[in-house]
Amino acid sequence: MSTLAFTLTDSATMLRRNVKHQIRYASVTIMLIGMPLVFLLLFVYVFGGQLGTGLDGTHTGRSAYLAYVTPGILIMTVASAALGTALSVASDMTEGIVARFRTMSISRGAVLTGHVLGTLIQTVLGLVVVGGVAVAIGFRSDAAALKWLAALGILLLFGLALTWLSTALGLAAKSVETASNTPLFLTILPFLGSGFVPTDSMPTGMRQFAEYQPFTPVTETVRKLLNGGAVGHSAMEAIAWSVGITIAAYLWSIHLYNNRPIR
Amino acid sequence: MKSAATAAIQVSGLTKSFGDHLVLDGIDLSVAEGSIFSLLGPNGAGKTTVVQILSTLIPADAGNMSVAGHDVTTDPHGVRSAIGVTGQFSAVDNLLTGRENLRLIADLLHLGRAAGRRRVAELLDRFDLTDAAAKPVSTYSGGMRRRLDLAMTLVGTPRMIFLDEPTTGLDPRSRHTMWDSIRGLVRDGVTIFLTTQYLDEADELADQIAVLDQGRIVAEGTPAELKRRIPGGHIELQFPTLPALDSAARLLQAASRDEDSLTLQVPGDGSVAALRELLGQLEDAAIDVENLSIHTPDLDDVFFAVTGHPSTRDSDLQKADA
After folding, report:
1. Which of B72, B92, B93 to mutate to test the interface with A (most CBs of A within 10 A)?
2. How confident is the model at residue B197 (pLDDT cuts 50, 70, 90)?
3. CATH number (domain holding residue B249)
4. Do B217 and B264 lie in a common domain?
5. Cα distance from B56 to chain A (closest Cα, Å)?
6. Chain A neighbors of B105, CB-CB under 8 A
7. Is residue B263 part of a domain?
8. Are residues B23 and B82 in the same domain?
9. Among A116-125, A231-240, B203-212, B271-280, which range has the highest average pLDDT?
10. Of A134, B63, B133, B188, which residue is most buried, by most CB within 10 angstroms?
């Protein structure tokens, strides 16, 4: 009981530390949220008119593409925020203060949990900003509040998975530079799925990869929740992927943290 | 404060290798409660590794170690709750202010809001950081950073403190401030395990010194004991001419002579009485002295005697078990 209480208190203390870092290093948060924002505007205003005509459905053109791409961009927002964790964890590990934490009688995972919770706050902030801009440029959804909440839940659960994965990659990196490059694939994966174009427009090999990688069921679930349509088994797949990645990446992170040589 | 019966640190047969490289080759140590123990050695001797093992940062390959009554291997949490560590590199958060750094530690130690604030204010004042408390640590000077670092180590009032090269890279004034802080801690009854590569620092602060070289303790004792183990002090006399040197050498039987530099080394502690007697003898014999210098043994002599010359290692300088 008291061990659990201490773990929670210590994680909250570390979260406060990370939030202070984010506020003082606001340029990082702005960059991480700006990236999906640029992709949203780029894809809607540059490619959107053309891409929208290729979609099935009653609406065509730019507004149809905006409706299609917004869920993909929201996933990218989640991935982008997660990406920052590798960087902040890796640079934290080069600081002497982490060695101090390890000589103190505090819960071992608290440092990492603080980073992950901090990123989730950034993720929510990013989703609000990017979602807000999408609405401002014409995205409309007639989904009920419950479906919006369900979409947010799916996005955050997937965000948790990607953030722990990014944490592990940050710990595994030999340098801060490596840590900033390794998780870049997370922002590429929405392209190699159903984030920007339907997978059935892709060549066979590409399509098979796209249909079976974790970003696709998450994108599809969010898309169905916001744009209407039966969610089907994609929600179960999205949840299974998220939980699976979270558990594996959490265990990997804790293992790396405990066995890490001192600088 | 000192009690011979209780040891704050007890280490026997500590061994550690990194890959093929044997860093610690069977170390035995005993540190009395309430004392300052200094582990002295050159860079790469393994000092930091000893601190890292005793502060539970890395595991040992072999050996029995207890710190503040807790076994390091089986009860690392017990050790962590009793110790404070100030490492070689400043363990502070550069993005936070000085006060926030101290609060962070107070929160992690679950001191409680009111008690935590009191302790933080007390430490800021004690380490002369109150004026800089609201500034980010990234703007601090090296000396301020070390002071904050030590203050963070003290938030939980640990009974046992590890200081790994606490003054490396500090200017002389900051070094003396740090020394005063360390002495203040011992007055409060804290046990200090200090590593240093500075002989004067160990000489200045330590009750007990162990010299670490290439993973082994090559000498151990109080500063005075260590100094006694090396050839004693001497007075060096330089003469203008060879005949003067010859007559002085005949007069002072115990002296050793060097014809090239026209000098004589006369054993002696350099006290005023000894000097007066020596100069009196020379004056009575009408021998001209061109130059005189007094050489008292310091820890540098010990250090070079025990680490610089392998031949002396097997003599009485080495103390395998202390």
Report:
1. B93
2. confident
3. 3.30.70
4. no
5. 6
6. 100, 104
7. yes
8. yes
9. A116-125
10. A134
Position with higher pLDDT, A103 vs A15: A15
- Of B197, B228, B259, the last residue of a domain is B228
Q: Is A4 on the interface with B (CB under 8 A)?
A: no
For residues B221 and B257, membership in a common domain is answered with: no
Residues of A whose CB is below 8 A from B89: 96, 99, 263
**Is B161 part of the contact surface with chain A (CB cutoff 8 Å)?**
no
Are B87 and A9 within 8 A, CB to CB?
no
Tens digits of per-residue pLDDT, B13-40?
A: 999 998 889 999 999 999 999 999 999 8
Residues B291 and B220 in one domain: no
B180 touches chain A (CB under 8 A): no
Chain A, residues 90-119, CB within 8 A of chain B, namely 95-97, 99-106
Q: What is the count of structural domains for chain B?
A: 2
Q: Do both B70 and B15 map to the same domain?
A: yes
Tell me if ipTM is over 0.90. no
- Is residue B16 assigned to a domain? yes
Q: Residue B172 above 80 pLDDT?
A: yes
Same domain as B120, residue B53: yes
Which residue in chain A has the smallest CA separation from B150?
A100
Residue A251's contacts (CB-CB under 8 Å, 6 or more residues apart) are none
H-helix or E-strand spanning residue B38:
strand B36-40
**Is B312 part of a structural domain of the chain?**
no
**Residue B93 maps to which CATH number?**
3.40.50.300
SS3 state of residue B125? helix
- Chain A CB within 8 Å of residue B91 CB: yes
Band (pLDDT 50/70/90 cuts) for residue B311 is very low
Are B107 and A13 an interchain contact pair (Cβ–Cβ within 8 Å)?
yes
Rounded distance between C-alpha atoms, residue B98 and residue A143, angstroms: 49
User: In which residue are the tokens 């929405």 written?
Assistant: A190
Domain for residue B300, yes or no? no
Q: Which residues does chain A have within 8 Å of residue B100's beta carbon, measured at their own beta carbons?
A: 20
pLDDT at A76: 94
Question: How far apart are alpha carbons B143 and B148 in whole angstroms?
Answer: 9
